[in-house]
Write a structure and sequence with these properties.
single chain; 339 residues; alpha/beta; 10 helices; globular
Length: 339
């Protein structure tokens, strides 16, 4: 059994064939897709965050809106770039969104990926400290966020406040109980996965990672997950961790599916360079259901994970993406034991 969710990058463009032509379209359709996903029995609605792009950017208004329109589906990000975040303000935003959703927020964060502009976080007012890299700064922001979200008081109260204060040091409000255990780290290497485990964060592993052994992507990713779980056990945390992987998977049910995804152009791993690091990009899956099932059985990382996030072509619209997700839930997931 697996939890299955969708992951939307939230693209929008006023181009021929696009069903998502504006920022308003992508926000409202993201909410509608989450509602449809809940109705069909999907477990999660997750959204990617990119700055300086025609994609979803500020996540918390969207997460809160989805939380208000749904009742059971998990609502998450995959991922928020912590180079851009004020961790204290983020504690307030996350607590508010989680309370609106009734404790369903699954907040994926990370050090981010290459962006549309050079050092975009500088325009947000952030700069690495002396001797830090931007990735170090993201991890520093993360550690502050994790500490403050615990809910302990840390700020000295004003002796003449506008409103009466409770005794002791003050904390940020609102606090949402249990949210600390629903923070995920998007790890691109084995070392950062182990770092996340030590800090008690769940693991999100995407469709790319550092090429550390030269093996197939799914094998390297499975090893990353095992290293993460070993580090978690060594850290002695009191609760069980969760692990997600994301995949592009399409069951070819009709001519429209075959037109969009039947060319097999992404059915092999690819190698590329990201931030001067050799990276391996995992294959996509698109085939008739029976053949798709056989292929997915060979994916070691999917087998290791408890949560699978299905990347969706959001610019094709809510109706088509609902069809894509329903096809997988109905014709693929049961045969693999995911349902």
């Amino acid at each position: 059994m697996k939890k299955i969710g969708f992951l939307s990058f939230g693209h929008w463009a006023n181009d021929r064939g696009s069903q998502v032509r504006s920022a308003s379209d992508v926000l409202l359709q993201s909410i509608d897709l989450a509602v449809a996903a809940e109705q069909m029995g999907l477990d999660g609605a997750y959204f990617r965050v990119h700055h300086y792009a025609r994609q979803l950017a500020s996540p918390f208004p969207l997460l809160a809106a989805v939380g208000a329109r749904t009742t059971s589906i998990e609502i998450g990000t995959g991922v928020i770039d912590m180079r851009y975040e004020n961790p204290l303000y983020m504690v307030e935003d996350a607590g508010s969104a989680d309370l609106i959703a009734g404790g369903r927020l699954q907040l994926g964060i990370s050090r981010g990926s290459p962006e549309q502009v050079i050092d975009g976080w500088r325009h947000f007012g952030y700069q690495p400290a002396e001797g830090e890299t931007p990735a170090d700064m993201a991890r520093r922001h993360t550690q502050v966020f994790l500490q403050i979200i615990e809910g302990e008081g840390f700020a000295q109260p004003n002796p003449r406040p506008m409103f009466p204060n409770p005794p002791g040091l003050l904390r940020l409000e609102p606090q949402s109980p249990g949210l600390r255990n629903r923070i995920w780290w998007g790890a691109g290497s084995n070392a950062t996965a182990e770092w996340a485990a030590k800090l008690g964060m769940n693991l999100q592993s995407s469709t790319l990672k550092d090429d550390e052994t030269g093996e197939a992507f799914h094998i390297q990713q499975a090893k990353q997950i095992r290293a993460y779980r070993a580090a978690w056990k060594e850290a002695g945390h009191s609760h069980a961790p969760r692990v997600s992987v994301s995949r592009s998977i399409f069951a070819l049910m009709n001519d429209q599916d075959r037109m969009y995804f039947g060319n097999g152009s992404k059915d092999q791993d690819q190698i590329g360079i990201i931030d001067q690091t050799r990276s391996v990009f995992g294959r996509g899956y698109a085939d008739e259901p029976d053949r798709l099932i056989d292929q997915l059985r060979q994916d070691e990382a999917i087998a290791e994970a408890d949560t699978l996030l299905l990347t969706v072509p959001n610019m094709l619209g809510v109706d088509y993406n609902t069809h894509v997700l329903e096809s997988l839930l109905t014709h693929v997931a049961p045969a693999l034991g995911w349902r």
